[in-house]
Amino acid sequence: MIDFHTHILPNLDDGARSIEEAHNLLKEAEKAGFDSVVYTPHFIEEYYETNVKEREVWLETFSRKFYDLDNIKTYLGSEIFLTNNIMNLLENAKASTINNTSYVLFELPMESEPEDLYEILYQLKKNKVVPILAHPERYPYIQKEPDIIYELIQEGVYMQSDYGSVIGENGNRAKRIINKMLENNLVHFLGTNAHRENTIYKKIPQILEILNGYIGEEKLYELTTKNPDLALHNKKINIREPIEIKLTLKEKVLMFFNR
Ligand SMILES: [Fe+2]
Prior knowledge:
Blueprint: E1 2-6, H1 19-32, E2 36-39, E3 42-43, H2 52-65, E4 73-76, E5 79-81, H3 86-91, E6 103-107, H4 117-126, E7 130-134, H5 140-144, H6 147-154, E8 158-162, H7 172-183, E9 189-191, H8 204-232, H9 249-257
Parallel strand pairs: 1-2, 2-4, 3-5, 5-6, 6-7, 7-8, 8-9
Bound molecules: fe (ii) ion (FE2).
């Protein structure tokens, strides 16, 4: 299994706070069954701006320190807060793509959908950059109008959901949406989005069991291993036919009132 979204590289963002915590997180990841981890520190303009070169130095330093973790492979990426400057960030080696491939993990603001979202996606497409949206199930405006997910997939965006959402760690609404997404072939990658030790990794066995019961072994393999592996090697991912989410009136009401 490949953990596609983590904040383990220490002191670069709000993730791991020390080398020791990063080390413990990797040990936990290995114990939870991951053989690979993608480091995706935040890249938020004017806030978290460690550039590619600096991140590579950190990666090398930590890889040498964690000599006892030979069995876990690590890759570099970033989680880019979407900006209309994104191509500039990539071209000038500020933000990283996933393992130097064409795939880019991005996040959106929590409060509202950016007005120029589709324009930015067009820019990426024009430059052959393949966008992956981090945890779509967690944005309140997507929870209220989840058909955005289907529309974005039609625009060539892949979806990465957080393992924790499956058990309600990101609220009831996110849990409901991720269930719908799984049911409708709208998830392509899973990631822990791990920031702290003693949190999500301990719950992975329980979450995998739930997911296995819900979507079955084959689909689960695609989201945890096959698709992340294809992306890490810059190969094309053939997705399953996505189905639009149609909320019933009762579900819509719940989305408004039940966090
Ligand atoms: Fe994240």
